């Protein structure tokens, strides 16, 4: 991929379906990277929370319903919760549309089955909104070859970790994007964490050598938070019913760390069902 692909992203019309924590962070990251506001639309179900979030982010004027997002965008980012993904099934995509699903747990084939004819789909798992805001996120991608998507991820400053296959996404989610959050939560509960055990657990799940990701998690995790700031951080990084929530619940119940990671992986696998 060359710099032209990065430039192309900034002249692409991008639609974000779901304007919660992640959708808004991606929108803000893209605008900060130089995407003209006029090229961006975001949808939601018009809940007061979603409207409030768009207002707070100064993105109210970029709201559109799903139909308009789909009609006017060349690249569509899906950022709804896994339990809501079926609501997208009635949408008719234009030919040539590229979909990027950021939804935890859901395999590419599951998303593909919603649309006729099946569009080009890329699945991305990315770290929490604060890392996107800081242009220090990590992620993994799987699916269609798309220079446009690679340009998008690069523009957002997301460092990609190569995984052997889509099967490793569940383990990647807990040992990668969730790790700064788990470390922060463990610290607040004075739970001791062995970095070696984390590296061994990742290896046992067929992930590549994990030292770099552990170092990343230690570097990006917030420190010195007071109770309120920690609550806000954990809230924005935790999708209700999602993988991080399962992981943190297990930590709170006092399970061993390896059992906590197992609980997170199991939740990710259940989301696919
Ligand atoms: N938060 C993270 O750190 C993180 C990290 C990696 C991946 N993810 C993934 O990103 C996705 C979103 O997570 P989140 O934490 O941002 O969730 P969230 O804050 O609950 O946001 C979900 C958004 O989706 C909207 N939505 C739901 N159904 C919709 C529909 N049919 N059409 C249009 N919009 C719809 C909601 O709008 P209403 O409020 O109006 O219903 C809300 O704006 C999840 O799949 C999660 O696995 C999140």
From TrEMBL:
Gene3D superfamilies to which the protein is assigned, alphabetical: NAD(P)-binding Rossmann-like Domain
Pfam (any one): F420_oxidored
Coiled coil regions in record: none
Source superkingdom: Bacteria
Annotated InterPro entries: NAD(P)-bd_dom_sf, P5C_Rdtase_cat_N
Keywords per UniProt: Oxidoreductase
Record keyword Signal present: no
Keyword Protease recorded: no
Sequence ranges assigned to domain Pyrroline-5-carboxylate reductase catalytic N-terminal in this UniProt record: 13-105
Family membership noted in the UniProt record: Belongs to the pyrroline-5-carboxylate reductase family.
Record protein name field: NAD(P)-binding domain-containing protein
């Amino acid at each position: 991929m060359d710099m032209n692909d990065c430039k192309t992203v900034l002249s692409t019309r991008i639609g974000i379906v779901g304007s919660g924590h992640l959708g808004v962070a991606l929108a803000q990251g893209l605008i900060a990277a130089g995407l003209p506001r006029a090229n961006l639309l975001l949808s939601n179900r018009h809940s007061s929370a979603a409207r409030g979030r768009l207002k707070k982010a100064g993105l109210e004027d970029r709201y559109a319903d799903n139909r308009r997002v789909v009609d006017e965008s060349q690249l569509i980012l899906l950022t709804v919760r896994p339990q809501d993904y079926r609501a997208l099934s009635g949408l008719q995509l234009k030919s040539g549309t590229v979909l990027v699903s950021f939804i935890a747990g859901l395999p590419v084939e599951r998303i593909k089955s919603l649309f006729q004819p099946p569009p080009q789909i890329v699945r991305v798992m990315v770290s929490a909104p604060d890392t996107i805001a800081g242009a220090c996120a990590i992620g993994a991608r799987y699916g269609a070859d798309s220079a446009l998507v690679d340009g998008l991820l690069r523009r957002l400053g997301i460092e990609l970790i190569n995984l052997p296959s889509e099967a490793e996404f569940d383990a990647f989610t807990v040992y990668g994007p969730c790790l700064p959050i788990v470390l922060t939560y463990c610290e607040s509960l004075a739970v001791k964490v062995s970095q070696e055990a984390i590296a061994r657990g990742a290896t046992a799940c067929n992930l590549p050598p994990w030292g770099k990701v552990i170092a990343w998690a230690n570097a990006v995790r917030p420190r010195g938070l007071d109770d309120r700031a920690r609550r806000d951080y954990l809230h924005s990084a935790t999708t209700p019913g999602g993988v991080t929530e399962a992981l943190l619940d297990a930590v709170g119940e006092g399970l061993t760390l390896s059992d906590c990671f197992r609980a997170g992986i199991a939740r990710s696998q259940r989301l696919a069902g």
